[in-house]
Write a structure and sequence with these properties.
alpha/beta, TIM Barrel, Alpha-d-glucuronidase, C-terminal Domain, 3 domains, binds 4-O-methyl-alpha-D-glucopyranuronic acid
Length: about 675
Amino acid sequence: MKTYSLLAIILLCFCLHAEDGSQLWLRYEGNANAQITANVKNSKTVDIALSELTQYWKGAPVLLEKKRTKTTDEGFTIVSDKKNNSLKIVASTDIALLYGAYHLLRLQQTGQVTENLNISQTPKYQYRILNHWDNLDGSIERGYAGRSLWEWEKLPNEISPRYEQYARANASIGINATVLNNVNANPKILTQEYLQKVKVLADIFRPYGLKVFLSVNFASPKTLGGLPDADPLNPEVAKWWKAKAKEIYALIPDFGGFLVKANSEGQSGPQDYGRSHVDGANMLADVLKPFGGIVMWRAFVYAPSSDDRAKQAYLEFMPFDGKFRDNVIIQVKNGPIDFQPREPVSALFGAMQKTPVMVEFQITQEYLGFSNHLVYLSPLFEECLQTDTYAKGQTSTVAKTTDGSLFGHRISAIAGVANTGSDVNWCGHDFAQANWYAFGRLAWNYELTSEQIADEWIKQTFNDKKEFLEPVKGLMLSSREAVVDYMMPLGLHHIFAMGHHYGPEPWCYFPNMRQDWLPPYYHKADSEGVGFDRSKTGSNAVAQYFPPLNEKYGNIEQCPEEFLLWFHHVAWDYKLKNGRTLWDELCYSYDNGVKEVRDFQKIWDRMENYVDAERFELVQTKLQIQARDAMWWKDACLLYFQSFSQLPIPYDIERPVHKLDQLQKIKLSISNHENAILETINR
Ligand code: GCV
């Protein structure tokens, strides 16, 4: 028996080939030579479906049948025709046939093909969008996987093969839209020169069903058009935008529309002219309406003067509910602050009922260890989407308040800030690919569980050997809790280093700086305790939630402990449900986070025989960085908060390996993730 398993392992190692992660989850084996036909006049999209299946489908003959169906334009059915020993993919559009083809291949890759297939699928959201924070100079804001995929300098003449690979990867998971440029938008994107480049990308993406959107700078009529202002109520401004829209649609007839970050973090907007978000969004909506375009208007707004940043989006947008045009959708970050490893959901979900609202997730790991830390984000996405807002009875999950079903909206959308870049493995960390994948799969169907998604991703990206699948799945599924434990347990938040947000800096304080950009504004540690009081006795942010959430969050006894310090300023000796004091629980949580990452290392090292050497080593190295970072977080936070609590770190916990003053001297000058890696290694 022993000899047999040894042989099997040797054989497996032999079969594994050298590789670089560039194939993502699309690792079909070629030369299948299946018999694939279509009842439809070939289009580029149908040709792709035919070609993918002909090369890679190893089962019964497949007919792609286009006909009117009850499903939506993008929905498809896969049915076995037992009599003829064949299969049919039925859909009413070409793109839906392609989605069906990718689904069939996914079933094959994950061992789910049965004799009697009868599957009907239809996506939950109409627009399933990646937001690229890519700048025109090739850098990416909060990007940790190299440079931008878009080689603006070389476009429109030189075409990178990655453009089509990108479109294919997105189509394979049902992502159907992409915003190419940073929300901190350079007006230049709207010049004829750049629009010609955008057109080339749109043409490549189109057969894969990927619609192109652009982020626009609200001041463009002034900075680009030479007008004296960009006031949305100035007819000359509206005229400028109309002409611009005409120019765009002449090049890209199926252009999706605009994404706008206005009057936020220094970006211009309608408020510069005494106008409102409604004035700004509706002006652009009117411009896009004749072409079928939409405006995604972001609610990420906060002013330095506020008593509680977490309340601001709600305060600013709720009065406008119902006042936006029907082709405007409000894009809201999943939590009220900013993509922290854990946040309660934004109170705007469920509250804005007359205007469509969409969730914005961050797939790139700005606050989660960049592309150095292995964090599977599907549980974070799932937690948000499945949170009940109680807006309309018991089943008003964030998913249902945003998919158009609960409030009967015509448009629905979901966005994820992309983690892709020029790195050969696309995302910097091989496991970060799972976050792109999970976003797409949940956008298609938020009823999938994180476990199911991890299962299918591992089988497609690595292998389906039980000895590999089960431990790695376990690792992925616990990775999000681990990062919460070693970065911000019990609802602590925004205690990240200033600016780059890599590593801890809970002490960071400058009296003359915007206080809401500094950690003490959020943790409020003092000799009594720690945490932000958002209950009735504090900022009363809890009042923005529907009952019973407002009561639950507002009452220290009932508040879920994962949000305790988010909603309450809690005494160091406050007793938690497990009988520990707050201080002790903080210590054990940080310690647990470190232990979890050390366990991830142990699990991964055991996987060496099941994975190619390249990916094994890259992940191993990154886990080493993550383990060191986790200890850094633990020591920095515990030693710093201890200076307030004046309590001992429980003696059964591993002792700090750093001194606080040493840690306080660390200043990472991170312009990109390579620096972060180097500097953390050299620390
Ligand atoms: C694109 C946070 C990030 C910024 C980002 C901003 C936003 O503040 O740190 O880099 O800017 O969110 O979402 O607009």
